[in-house]
Amino acid sequence: MSNLLTVSPSPHIHSDDSTRKIMYRVVFALIPALIWSVFVFGADALRVTAIAVIACIAVEYLIQKYLMKVKPSINDGSALITGILLAFNVPAGLPWWIIVIGAVAAMGIGKLSFGGLGNNIFNPALVGRVFLLISFPVQMTTWPANQQAGTDAVSSATPLAVIKEGITSGTPVSQLFSEMPAATDMLLGNTTGSLGEISALMLIIGGLYMLFKKVITWHIPVSVIGSVAIIAGIFWLADPQSYVNPVYHLLTGGLMLGAIFMATDMVTSPMTPRGQIIYGVGIGAITISIRLFGAYPEGISFAILIMNAFTPLINNYVKPKRFGGK
Amino acid sequence: MLKTFKLGGVHPPENKISAGNAIEVLPPPKSVFIPVAQHIGAPATPVVKRGDLVKTGQLIAKSSSFVSTNIHASVSGKVKRVDFAADSSGYPKQGIFIDVDGDEWVEEIDRSEELVKDFDLDGKAIIDKIQEAGIVGLGGATFPTHVKLVPPKGMKAEVLLINGVECEPYLTSDHRLMLEKADKILTGTRLLMKALKVEKAVIGIENNKPDAIQLLTEKSKTFEGISVTALKVKYPQGGEKQLIKAVTGKEVPSGALPIAVGAVVSNVGTAFAVYEAVQKNKPLFERVVTVAGKNVAKPSNFKARIGTPTEVLIEAAGGLPEDTGKVISGGPMMGRAVSSLNVPVTKGTSGILLMENKEAKRNEPITCIRCSRCVSVCPMGLEPYFLKVVSEKQVFDRAEENRIMDCIECGSCSYTCPSSLPLLDYIRFGKGKVGQIIRSRKK
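^ inputs. structure came back:
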């Protein structure tokens, strides 16, 4: 016989799914939110996203090639996602050099210092965002105006910041609400905030697509959103003049972006459904604690990073349901 | 809602291309190689020597212990030699080479096709005949059937499950057998029920074989205590523990045998072999083998003699396609890739699958992204990604703690891994080592 046979252990077929396909499905799921932010913030949204993506890919390439001396893996799609998510987590008017610093922090510190894809403990895009938030607090909280909202202002405050400032100064919630966009506007994204976080609706559409394509499961988003709603709801019911209702908590800030796209990052979240629920509830609880009692108006980035650190511990103790019981 | 097992599972493309093709009887080849170890347990001891003349169905190797089986000549002719040659594992195994001359069967075998439905043997006599005939589990595990029929002390069988699931892609041998030999399978099932002293038997069939479900449901009405359960299609439902869970809802505890939950599982092919052995005095020396593959000219189901070289079956199915890159004995999920086309059909060969070059090569593995799909598809509730790492790093105590020995090697993890990591390869290595450690501890 002329041709040689391949001999390898079973299984002999493969599902034909690949890491790359998963990554590109995530990118695809991010597109509705990106389109919305271009609609709201204009070309600036594209500029920031493009700079972040190019910078993340370039940093990964340079570090892998010249520092780690391994074959660069920039076409696996993961640097592309980190770039988009980093952009989604910063204001649309951010200067280019700050974005590049964010990319260096995200890829260099957040990802490659741990060994690259699959080995990082913390979500790289959030490492970048938090690095920038601490280093450039002014630029990171200068929000461009929503071009659709019809205001002439160069910058405006996010709903979360309005609430935080108002409540700390003792203004009753009912009065604060007159300065706030309506819930439907926040659902759609007729508000301001970080580039990709403003439209809950677009993020939910992307999330449903990922659920449908089995990129993510329901456990993390539902447990994050559910725990925020329940905890915020308890405070609101106890004292509606000092705490805003849970609907606003769900629709404002980075909650949807965090719950659907950041907390679900496969590399940094637990492996079992039960572990994912513990992780999600942890994120929800920390987020709402920071929002209600912390110094920052928004807390989901910190919450996800803190729970990222617990992921190895959760994986160690929360085992899947074994066949045949204990 | 159709029944199925709960944890994990995957849906590989079914590709049952030979399902519509009736079983064809393949004439005896020119020569056969019959290994003496075609079952789990001790190899049989050859009782013929070079130059002996044997008849089809004659005992040629004798069971050497309780967990072992008799081996019979599948052809008539002259014993060429008793020697070692590679079987589907690739390792040399002792076996008997026979040069075929005619096809003269031993006199006791009733060769008529006539259905013999009645029997008055008692359970013990049935088990003896099964043992005598060298019957093993024909689903692929090849565990000696007579051993299963004698539950360990203190345990009692309550239900017999007949496995007609055939969840491996491509394979259709059980499907064809159910369509063509339904009465005989049902009679064989009654025989097994009597041997086990159970009143109830359930035949589990996946829903992608509606014709078999319908036929057996209809025919089983005249057989007391036998019913058919249609199951939702999901791999690896043909796994013993998964089938028990799907049909009865009970989970066999870790490390225990099905009898622990009162169940005994036999394949439909085994039930048919039992019928032939008990009612027709025919030892197990032939079986149905599917030959299939994307480029196979004539996908077929052959009734082939044990010991027939793979090559002969491939020729009968239209020859080896030009582009063949891998030949598998069994199905694509759990079968073994063979290194030579001389490898013989044995009692456990349910199919021969020819894969084209493109399919034959594995993808280049890349790094684990911890997507957790291997965890969600594992039918045993294990963490393949973790077992891979601890096996690779040789941290065997962690592997054992995390129940590596529960792995049934179904391959769902490797199949599904988007990074194409060979998870099962590492887990098999870890299982081997942990098994050694456990055995040395018992000493």
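The longest strand of chain B covers residues 77-86. Chain B has a mean pLDDT of 93.
thumbs up if we can close this ticket
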